[in-house]
Inverse folding.
């Protein structure tokens, strides 16, 4: 048996005759505050197409972590907090005691650069478009993937050429991020006490 996961169709048929703006795929168009064109309606998760600040493109991400995070932001904004959604998508999967993480958003890319060994299941794959790294997938190197996620979140990701040529590595990126106060900490006041994962 082969099981193929190819995405979902947003269940938004009930909005077809409403005033809410829908995309061609049926998803709900929202602004950075996860607010629709009807200011009394917010949307989050698989059904929401939002502006992705890293690239300026519109994105829709079908992972529960994204839905959870966006739900929090939508709730803040319903309460008038005016907090734009600025997370970088992150997900993982685990099979037969092997985990893979993915961070970023790369609906299209020019090439994939592999650092490490696919055969040994210990690698990082960089999804590259032009000079930029749009996403990173990794297996057996969780701390390196989390480092790259924090680099994306802080808008300090190295250019692709420096990664490919070995000028920058997860170790060098981690060292630079560790010098920046507040990296890796939850930025939502009163939300949680998440501790930084960075180590120099």
């Amino acid at each position: 048996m082969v099981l193929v996961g190819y995405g979902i169709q947003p269940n938004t048929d009930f909005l077809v005759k409403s005033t809410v703006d829908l995309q061609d795929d049926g998803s709900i168009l929202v602004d950075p505050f996860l607010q629709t064109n009807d200011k009394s309606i917010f949307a989050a998760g698989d059904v929401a197409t939002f502006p992705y600040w890293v690239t300026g493109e519109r994105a829709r991400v079908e992972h529960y972590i994204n839905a959870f995070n966006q739900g929090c932001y939508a709730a803040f904004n319903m309460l008038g907090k005016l907090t734009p959604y600025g997370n970088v998508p992150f997900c993982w999967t685990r099979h037969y005691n092997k985990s893979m993480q993915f961070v970023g958003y790369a609906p299209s890319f020019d090439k994939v650069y592999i650092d490490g060994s696919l055969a040994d299941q210990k690698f990082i794959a960089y999804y590259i478009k032009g000079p930029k790294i749009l996403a990173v997938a990794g297996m057996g190197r969780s701390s390196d993937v989390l480092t790259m996620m924090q680099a994306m979140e802080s808008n300090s990701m190295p250019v692709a050429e420096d990664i490919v040529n070995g000028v920058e590595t997860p170790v060098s990126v981690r060292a630079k991020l560790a010098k920046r106060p507040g990296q890796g900490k939850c930025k939502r006041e009163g939300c949680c006490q998440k501790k930084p994962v960075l180590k120099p």
